[in-house]
Amino acid sequence: MPRLPAVARNVRNLRTYVGRVPNPITDSTRNAQARIRGADATVSVCPYCAVGCSQLVYVKNGRIVDIEGNYDSPINGGTLCPKGSATYALIENPLRLTTVKYRAPYSDHWVEKPLDWAMERIAERVKQTRDATWQQRDAEGRLVNHTLGIGHFGGATLDNEENYLIKKLFTAGLGIVCIENQARI
Ligand code: SF4
Fold first, then answer.
1. Is 30 part of a structural domain of the chain?
2. Residues 168, 127: one domain?
């Protein structure tokens, strides 16, 4: 009879001699499946820092069920730091903030406002400030068509495509010069 390879022999020995024999296994353990079984995996990027670790986002029935490190990535090779590992909770989290806090000029307290209200307010203020600080020519009469009254400071969550759109809208569209961002792959 041919000899089994060493690994197979060890597995057989484990089953035969280790713990109670036969090993007691409940039906729920026997039928347990990985939580990502049957889910579609989409490659994404961790939203937190400039390392830019690649993630696999697992979706089942239209909902994200898990987010893990992508083994194919040369950056993180399947790993994620504790913050990146918690990305799932960024999406599925009953405590996620869905409003903003607003403190009116000269007020001593904050009030809660909906996001749509905040978006409108930001748009209004950008328009007001741009109109008030628009400069067509500089002190030497050179054509500049810009505003120095508004700046944009981005975080590492923004990827190349988003930064491209920010630069296109804010600089080419609105004439904002002061735009900065944390580097990101
Ligand atoms: S997993 Fe950690 S190190 Fe990687 S991008 Fe996210 S926050 Fe940065």
1. no
2. yes
Same domain, 161 and 106: yes
Ligand 1 site residues, Cβ closer than 6 angstroms: 46, 48-49, 51-53, 76, 80-81, 83-84
- Ligand 1 pocket test, candidate residues 71, 83, 158, most atoms within 8 A of CB: 83
User: Distances from the Cα of 103 to the Cαs of 109, 134, 150, 152, 170, in angstroms?
Assistant: 6, 27, 20, 21, 26
The range of the structural domain enclosing residue 151 comes to 99-181
Q: What is the pTM of this model?
A: 0.64
pLDDT digits (tens, 9 = 90+) for 132-184: 999 999 999 999 999 999 999 888 778 788 889 999 999 999 999 999 887 66
Mutate to test the pocket of ligand 1, among 55, 75, 79, 81 (most ligand atoms within 8 A of CB): 81
Hey, CA dihedral for 162, 155, 46, 57, is it positive or negative?
negative
